[in-house]
User: Fold these one by one.
Assistant:
Number 1:
Amino acid sequence: MVNKYWRILPVLGFVLIACIACDKKEGFELYKEVMDKELQSGKQADSLFLGMSFGMTSKNFFLHCWEMNKKGLFTDGQNNTSVLYKLNHHELKHAASMNFYPHFYDNKIYKMQTSFNYDGWAPWNKHLSSDSLLTDVLVLYRKWYSGGSPFIRISDPQKGVIYVKVDGNRRITVGQYDEIHVKVDYTDLVIEQKMKKVE
C-alpha cells in the first residue's frame, strides 16, 4: 500500500509544478503573450472615448473638441495644454476631472494621454486620493471597454502597480501617477512598432 503512494508522488509533484507554472503566468509575461496574440490577430480597435479614435486627423480632433465645447462638454484643461471633460454624471463615485491630449503621427492620433483626479481632493480628504481613484477608474474602464481582453495587473519597479489591456492594436495602461492623479495612456501598437523601425 505504501509503495503505491510512493509511485503516485512523482505524478502529483509534476501536476503541482504544472499548476504553479500556470499560476505564475501573470504580470508582464502574460501581458507580452496577450499583446503578441492580439497584434497577430490583425484586429483594429481604434475607438478611444467621447467620439475620438486612433487615426483621427489633427484637424478633425480640433473640430470635434470645438463642437463638444459648444455643447458644454469640453473646455480648456490644465495650463491650457489639454482638453478637460468633467465627470459629474455619476461615471465615478465623486465629481472628477479628465484631462487629455493626443500625440500625432503623420498628422493622425496614435496615442492619447489622459489624467484623472477627484475635484474635491485635499490632503485631509484621503478617500479622494489616487489609490481610491484608481479602483474607481478601473471599474469605469471595465464598463467602457467591457469586451476583449481583461486588464492585466503588472508590478513595475518604477511605476508601481499598473493595469494593462490590449485589444488588437489598442493598448490601454492605467496607473497611479502621484497622490492626486491616475494616468491612462492609449497607444496604437501598430504605429508604435512602425515608429521604432524608423528610429
Number 2:
Amino acid sequence: MSNPALADEVTDTLTSAMDAYEEGDIDYAIEELDYAKQLLQAMKTAELTAFLPEAPAGWTREVSEEMNTGLAMLGGGMGAEAEYSDGADSFTITIMANNPMVTAMGAMVSNAAMLGMKLERVGRQKFVNDDGELTGLVDNRILIQASGADVDLMVGVLENIDYEALEDFAR
C-alpha cells in the first residue's frame, strides 16, 4: 500500500542527502535524512490506518490526522485513530505500534485475568474491559483501544480488524 509519488520523494531526498554528504555539508545531509525518515513513517502510518475498520451501518468514520503528533510526545511510534458516530453517539478506536506505552500496557493486558479484570473476546483476541473501555494487545507490540460506546457495538466493529495481517505489520 505504498504511495509511488511519496516513494519517489523518498528516493529524491535520500539522493539529496548523499549529494550533501559528498559535498561535505553534513548538517544538510542530516536534515535530508530526517525528512526522508518522516516520509517513510508517513507511509507506514498510512498502512496502519488501513486496519481501522469501516463504520457500522448507519454510522460514519472520521480518521484523525493528528494521532502521530501526540505519539511524538509519548516516546514515538506510529498510530491510527478514528471516531465513529451515528449523529447522537460516538466512540473511538485507536491503534498504536512501536510505542513505549504499548510495552507498558502489554503486561496489564497479558495478565488481566490474574489481576481480576474483565475480559472480552474478539475472535481469538482478548480485550480488557475496564468500565467499557476495551484494550487489546496484538503480537505483544500493537495496542488497540476502543472507548465511548456500548461494549457489544464496539466488539462488533473490532471483529472487522484483520488481526493476522496486523500481526505482520511493521516487522
Number 3:
Amino acid sequence: MIKRAFIVSIVASLSACSSTDVGQYRDNAPVFTLEEFFDGHLTAHGVLKNRGGEVTRHFNASIDASWDDEGVGRLVERFEFDDGEIQHRTWTLTPEGDGRYSGTAEDVIGTGTLQVAGNALRLDYVLEIDYRGRKLSLNVEDWMWRIDENTVLNESTLRKWGFRVGSIQLAIVRQGQP
C-alpha cells in the first residue's frame, strides 16, 4: 500500500510539470514576430535562482541577431556573470511553418523546439552545463512574453529528472530602435 501511494505521488508530481499551451496567447498583443524583434543589437539582464528561489547569480548579456535570405535566424549571445564568468552561445533558428521553429546551439543537446503565438514564445531544449567539474544535462522550458516594441520578459525553468532545480528570469531589450 505504501509503495503504491509513493508511485502515485511521483506520477502526480511529474504530471504537474506539464506546461501551458502557447496557443492560449494567440490573441494577445503586441504580436511577437521573431524576425522583427530579434534583429540587430539587444541586451539582456537577469538572475539565476536555485530550486529554493534564492538568487545565486546575476548577469548581463549582449545579443546580436540577424536573419538570412532563407529565413534562418542567428542569435550570437555573450553572457557576463557577476563572478566574472563569461559564456557564449550561438542559436540557429530555422522556421518550420505555423509559428514553429527548430533551434540549435553548441551547448544544446539535439534540437530545441520553439513555438510562437500572439505575444508569447515557448522554447524547450536540453542544455549541457559544467557543474562542479562535470557535464550535466538540464531540461529547459523557456517562456518569453513581448511586453512592448522593445522589451521581452523571459522565464526559464530548469529541470533534472523531471524535478525543478532552478530558474532564470531576465529582460531582453532591443537597442537603438525607434
